[in-house]
Amino acid sequence: MASVAELKAAIDVALQQIGEGQTAVQAAGEKLAEAQQTLAGALEGSGHETVEAAQASLTQASQELEECLAATLVAVEQAQLYVSTL
Amino acid sequence: MSIIEDVGAGVRAAAEEFPLAQLTVALEKFGQATERLRWVRQESANPMGVPELSAATEHAESAGHALRVAQEQLSAYLAAIGLAPDGAPAPRPDGDRRPAHDAPRDAPPPVAAPPPAAGDDNPVLRRWWAVRVAELTGGREGAPDEPDERIGDSRELLRRVADGVRAGDRDRLHRELRAAHADVGLGLAAIAPPLLRELAGELLGHPPRADDLARLRRELDGRIRDLLPGLPPPVLDTLLTRVCRMPPPQRSGEQPHAADPAVTAGVVTGVLLARLGRDLPRDADDPAAAGTGAAGNPAGNRAGADRPAGAARAGLGGNSAGNGSARRGSDG
Lengths: 86, 332
Description:
- The complex is a heterodimer of chains A (86) and B (332).
- Chain A has one domain (2-83).
- Chain A has 86 residues and is an all-alpha fold.
- Chain A is built from 2 helices and no strands.
């Protein structure tokens, strides 16, 4: 049977992994913003259907990243709250 | 460099900046954290942030899918303006080349120029899902074909996979899996795991736990290898540890292909259904509807409860193009 200390340690590791994931998501968001800018510059004036669809996909990706980050913040909060009750 | 080539270079530069590598890292970390928290909370009613983390994983997966869709759309655009994705002039159309894209079903169809020839070794334009299925099942990839629109959702695909497994027909299994849209196929990873844990519980006579891992592996490994000869062994191991609510095995550092966990989850479900002589429940999203005996155990229900609302939606990314968002999710 695991001790409270072991549980806390395991949750701490999980929190650290979430933090690393958050860092990666933030980096992804920054890189995506750069890609969107590059693309906008290259395709300025294009009304091609697939270009618009691609830009919509990138906007969607950006929103998903934001929601991803928001969800991780809640997850961290929940896990920390649980640790405080142990 | 002509103006057109200049535009193409700009588009390619943007596509190369897509942060797929960062997303892979994020998904790996979230997956590890989820498994660890799940392990900690096995007997606890406190969700400890696991549902939120599952939701985060889903969003990250959706983002990745949207990026891949955008890559395909940009490749279609380059083809439309007469450039191949590598910058060379696009090959001239001949014969009856057919689109090989694997865009979400609701996405606008690629317009104008034809895609590269069927034999082109262009990972962006080829149907990556079908290619990977061929590798996993040991089948021949064959000529690119259109996804089967009759396989409208992941449940339908799971039913077909289960039928193929029951028939012991690897070619049929290959065909059914390969004919699915990528988002439908990836959705297997969302709908199969809750059912898997329940079926494994029925096979074992109790909810799967850590010390059942070896037995489950013994029961399933041979059959899975037979049906999926190209499957990297760690994928099945990871799936079974999840079924047993254990921390994931140490990874060698190489991420599995996105299709692997989904295909594996679907095929293992089919194998268990066949082993138990069961049919797919009418509502595969609801493990409680699956059956009897240990199937209705609280642990099995909890497996489903871990998932946030909407987690079992069956289309991965169709978000970007209007589909549902599907998920490997941390359950699967």
